[in-house]
Amino acid sequence: MSAPVHPRSAPTAPGRAIGADLPRVDARAKVTGTATYAFEYPVPHPAYLHPVQATIARGRLTRIDTTAAEALDGVRAVLWHGNAPRLRATDNAELAVLQSDQVFYRGQVVAAVIADTPEAARQAARLVRLDYDQQPHDVDLSPHRGDLYAPKDDHDQGDLEAAMAGAEHALDATYTTPMLHATPIEPHTTTAVWDDSGLTLYESTQGAHFARQELAPLLDLDPQRIQIIAPYVGGGFGSKGPLHAPTVLTVLAARAMFGRPVKLALTRRHMFDQVGYRSPTIQRIRLAANAQGRLSGIGMDATVQTARLAEFIEEATGPTESMYAAPHRHIALRAAELDAAVPGWIRGPGQCPGMFGPEVAMDELAQACGLDPIDLRLRNDPDHDPATGKPFSSRNLAACLREGARRFGWHDRDPAPGTRLVQGWYVGTGVAASRYPVVPPAGPSEATVRHLHDGHYEVHIGAADIGTGAWTVLTQIAADALGAGVQDVQVRIGDTALPEASVAGGSTGTMSWGSTIVAAARAFRDRHGTAPAPGAEASAPLPDNPATEQFAMAAFGAQFAEVHIHADTGEIRVPRLLGAFAAGRIINPRTARSQLIGGMTMGLSMALHEQSIMDPRFGHVVNCDLAEYHIATNADVADIQAHWIDEEDPHVNPLGAKGIGEIGIVGTAAAVANAAHHATGVRVRDLPLTLDHFLG
Amino acid sequence: MIPFDYQRAQTPAAAAAAVAAHPRAAFLGGGTNLVDRMKLGVATPELLVDITHLDLDRIEELPDGTVRIGANVRNSDLAAHPLIRHRYPALSQALLSGASGQLRNTATTGGNLLQRTRCVYFQDTTTPCNKREPGSGCSALEGYTRYHALLGASEHCVATHPSDMAVAMSALDAVVTVQSPHGRRRIPLAELHRLPGDHPEHDTVLDHGDLITAVELPPSAMAARSRYRKVRDRASYAFALVSAAVALDLDGDHISDLRIALGGLAHKPWRALRAEEELRGGPATQEHFRAAAQAELAAARPLKGNAFKTDLARTTLASTLSDLAAPGPRHEEQR
Ligand SMILES: Cc1cc2nc3c(=O)[nH]c(=O)nc-3n(C[C@H](O)[C@H](O)[C@H](O)COP(=O)(O)OP(=O)(O)OC[C@H]3O[C@@H](n4cnc5c(N)ncnc54)[C@H](O)[C@@H]3O)c2cc1C
Ligand code: SF4
After folding, report:
1. Which of A164, A187, B143, B258 sits most deeply, having the most CB atoms within 10 A of its CB?
2. How confident is the model at residue A356 (pLDDT cuts 50, 70, 90)?
3. B95 CB near ligand 1 (under 6 Å)
4. What's the complex ipTM?
């Protein structure tokens, strides 16, 4: 089975597709339920898999008794480290599933049941008896641990201590963001078939080629013998970017069942310990400023956690390096290696939590200086990237702040906190800046353009649409690049049978796949002219962009929040969120708005609700379902608006487009926290902003 | 999930007999709680007796004005019924504040009353829990207790009962009718659920095989002036941190009678008898409301993770009382 083809879109005139408010080309397939997701692929006579998880956080398995599990009707096999197929390259220990008796965290997969039904597999998994040699575990994150290490070089410039000592206004405060989980609505699912033709995976992934590239050496298999098919993905939020253990587990099971397909769909609870999470962050922020609010010193000491099993670093200091300039800066990241699950990509890794402390600190500083928080940011808006000294390809933070302020109605804001009580609710407004860097795509990309007949084209690229709108915007980009209408272009994505493409991550998809398609279209015209024969074809890789060496590149934004806090109970509501963004050329206003609003909604959710509760005694997250791990509901989301300013960036790429997938979530929580302070006078430095912060 | 048998009961008596006859049998209502627990391995029934086809799905007014709610009436239907909305608004509000639209469409009155605690350790078979496995210990005592009890808990269990509906019913003097294998009986709703004491494994006073057939709401003038106020961690679709169901009968500025039940604070809907007593016959003033709330919460024994709920319960109760006494715009709930 290969990537699906959608019905033709509503027509656009040649060369007019980019910027058109085109409905999603995959919308009909999705709303009619005909879009097939990984678990749903009809394979003959599938077996089902259920993992068995460690119930200790550190130690060694001394005995596994599978007798009762194997005796159950319908059970085909119980895999564990003693009988599981061997993996080859296991440098990423997270993926070395069932290869040893070591337990690195509670919830780690230590065995798995393969059965004829998911129910039998699940029941049998409970019957597998495990004995351990248990050792004391340690999951306590603290900036005062003796064993913290520096995963990257510190950024030091001038003398921050002296700047703090000599400053008219000095702020030194600590902010925290909790552990967070990505929780896409489609769980991580894999359907694996290993037979004589090789390995076929129907996989819920943000990057089919990326997954294949990780799997091939692990299995010591020629990549050409692995096909990964992923046309539709029900959300990933980073957690389906890199490969995680459950996929490898399913592949091992398919190997063990050679010839018989095996399916795995994680339960919601599995998704709290199998597929990564955002590390909690502890952020000490120091700001030194003169009476006019000009920053003389900036400090950030961030502490994050990684896992004893494998390293993943939440680069929470990233944004501070490039956000504001000062002669004296000290930026340092420290990590603790804990007996916990391996953290991973989720929704703006590093950027999102890393903007919370600094952007709340800016609000505190504005208050201390008696300045409007927008004014403070404008006064400190640098004209060169403070991290590298390079000029920006474009930086329109100031324009976003001004445009957002105008639309939000900021101008007549009374700065005094805690003074507006309306019908029992304290009312406040707040602002914060957003930024998301243009990062290099994770992996190469190539596209192929093929002329079918009479000006109808197919464009092939192994890209992923995880609900973002990639199907649609790539169709628009291809149409313009070929001088055709969108109705004449069919894009095929989501399959390793197509040319290789980078992972959907880091907000790079549209930029890198789009630029690749533009290059392929150029190559096509160069070779075949404007009257190509049927079947004419050309391919091209993503061209290098020398400008990335010369310029610092990032999208910017400003987010505004109105917050109401109940005077008696501290309940918090956000009736209004407004973001103004500068992200280069917007390819499709409909899908762009949906991305930005989606990001802001996640930011709201992070501000108000989301928090994974680690119970240190056991070493696992205890609120591991969607009744207890709160995500914003419809009732929490009121008026959310996303706007953008016209930004022309001739350097960023041939499209002039920056990523918009993640910027919407960056800064949102700070804007809400700042508004909560404006409402009540209570400064909350620890997310989420639950009502207990505002009581009494 | 372990394999189980399934039966459809023909009559309430047969249902009760069928469950009573099998020590590992359970009634199946909407299944929104039981089936979840089965998937988690927390409940392991060998026989499900489906009661949803029994003729217990009517809401009717009896000659004496009592409103009888069949045990199978779905939460959505109950919330929307005109008799409930007009005569017992707190009950309608409580139902609508619970769970989600989809769940309320499925959940039954009987199942809602007998849903089990949401304590995260109770739901996690890899951790000790006295309620799930008597004698294994209570993981919550030193653990995550945001949703746990302040009142009436024991060293063996600090769980709360999660139902909103039950809190409103408790304030409305509801009575539960029960069909047991041996006959029928009536239990005041306020006495249905128990405190954990030494036996947290028992949520209620019901015996194995007792089928709830209906809930009766006695006629009450006061109930028309009732309100349910739920304070929670998101605007919708979250269990109560604290809730208050209050019914008030005012004679001028004086309180001639009242009922208060609190949710989110105890192993059962907490009838605030102490506060009721303080207020009955007294003036309906802010000070009195606050003092009564203070008196009721004097017995609170907060845990590390839920100390804020003492304050929250006080202010929630006091402000619900004053809203009801002097309805004005001040505390209208707003987004
Ligand atoms: C995500 C989520 C959020 C929720 N949020 C809330 C909330 O905010 N507030 C709230 O109040 N509730 C909430 N609930 C719980 C919901 O209200 C209950 O699941 C529901 O009311 C149970 O009703 P049911 O008919 O489905 O019960 P079932 O699951 O069928 O049964 C529950 C129990 O009662 C027994 N039983 C059922 N009927 C009878 C009877 N007639 N006689 C004797 N025993 C019986 C069953 O054997 C079982 O043990 C939530 C549930 C979920 C899953
Ligand atoms: S509070 Fe009760 S339900 Fe929760 S762990 Fe303790 S005994 Fe179990």
Report:
1. B258
2. very high
3. no
4. 0.95
Compute the distance between CA of residue B230 and CA of residue B37 in angstroms, rounded to an integer: 25
Closest chain B residue to A570, measured at CA: B312
Return the pLDDT at A549: 95
Domain coordinates in residue numbering, chain B: 227-325
| Joined tokens for residue A318 | 């990233």
Same domain, A587 and A612: yes
Residues of chain B with pLDDT under 70: 1, 327-335
- Crossing angle of the two packed helices A668-680 and A356-369, in degrees rounded to 10: 40
First to last CA, chain B: 40
pLDDT value for B25: 98
pLDDT at A627 over 80: yes
Q: Is the CA virtual torsion B27, B33, B38, B39 positive or negative?
A: positive
In a domain, A504, yes or no: yes
Residue at A130 is within a domain: no
The structure's pTM equals 0.97
Check pocket membership of B140 for ligand 2, CB cut-off 6 A.
yes
Which chain B residues are closer than 8 Å to A620 by Cβ?
126
User: How many domains does one find in chain A?
Assistant: 2
Maximum alpha-carbon separation in chain B? 62
Residues A368 and A484 in one domain: no
C-beta separation of A229 from A3 below 8 A? yes
How much is the pLDDT for A2? 53
Q: What φ, ψ does residue A511 adopt, rounded to 5°? A: -60, -50
Q: Does ligand 1 come within 6 angstroms of the Cβ of B115?
A: yes
A532 and A557 housed in the same domain: no
* pLDDT at residue A686 is higher than 70: yes
B26-51 pLDDT, tens digit each: 999 999 999 999 999 999 999 999 99
Q: Note the pLDDT tens digit of each residue in B115-154.
A: 999 999 999 999 999 999 999 999 999 999 999 999 999 9
Q: Are residues A460 and A410 in the same domain?
A: no
Domain B227-325: what homologous superfamily?
Answer: CO dehydrogenase flavoprotein, C-terminal domain (3.30.390.50)
Is residue A323 in a domain?
no
Q: Is residue A662 annotated as part of the catalytic site, yes or no?
A: yes
**Residue A497 is part of which domain span?**
27-35+440-546
Q: Where are the beta strands (DSSP E) in chain B?
A: 5-8, 25-28, 47-50, 59-61, 67-70, 175-180, 183-188, 211-217, 226-232, 240-251, 254-263, 270-271
The CATH number covering residue A385 comes to 3.30.365.10
Give, for A490, the enclosing helix (H) or strand (E).
Answer: strand A489-492
Q: Is residue A505 part of a domain?
A: yes
Q: Are A670 and A363 in contact (CB under 8 A)?
A: yes
- Give the nearest ligand 1 atom to B26 CA: 47
Give the pLDDT score at A205: 98
Residues 6+ apart with CB under 8 A from A88: A217, A218, A219, A220
Cis omega before residue A688 (within 30°)? Answer: yes
pLDDT tens column, A97-150: 999 999 999 999 999 999 999 999 999 999 999 999 999 999 999 999 999 999
From A485, A512, A546, give the residue that closes a domain: A546
- Mean of the pLDDT values across residues A311-321? 97
A695·B312 Cβ contact <8 A: yes
Last residue of a domain, one of A546, A573, A599: A546
Pairing of strands B270-271, B254-263: antiparallel
A685 & A561 share domain:
yes
CB-CB under 8 Å, A622 with B121 = yes
Ligand nearest to the CA of B231: 1
A51 strand-pairing partners? A112
Q: Are residues B267 and B179 in contact, defined by beta-carbon separation less than 8 angstroms?
A: no
Q: Are residues A682 and A634 in the same domain?
A: yes
Verify whether the Cβ–Cβ distance B315 to A695 is below 8 Å: yes
Contact B304, B145 (CB under 8 A): yes
Report the residue of chain B nearest A117, measured CA to CA: B1
